[in-house]
Specification:
With 117 residues, the chain is mostly helical. Helices cover 76% and strands 0% of the residues. It is found in: Endoplasmic reticulum membrane.
Amino acid sequence: MSSNMKAQRKVQQKDEDGEFLQMAALQQNVRTLTNCRIFAGVMAGCIAGLLKIEGLLGVGVFILVTLIHSLMIAAKMEFEVHRHFPKSRDLFVSQFGGGLLSFILFWTLSFDMVHIF
């Protein structure tokens, strides 16, 4: 059987059975995304605190940094997000809360250290 025939059979099997996801790889991708969200939250918090950004504008900084970071990750994956996550939107909205908590912590910490003390 030629390799072209095998490839066609795999494509047909994928179409019939749905998407194939390896759980170990998916869990690793989610863990890595969690670490990325925390890092983006820390960086956004430091930026907002050092620049003395207050109120909802500070939260806007977090959303902007998280969006830019998600686009950079998507670009690294050559915009084939569906190969690494069950849904493409997971890259942009998944693990948002963990990054937000890190953002608030570092936002208040850097703001207080630079502008209050």
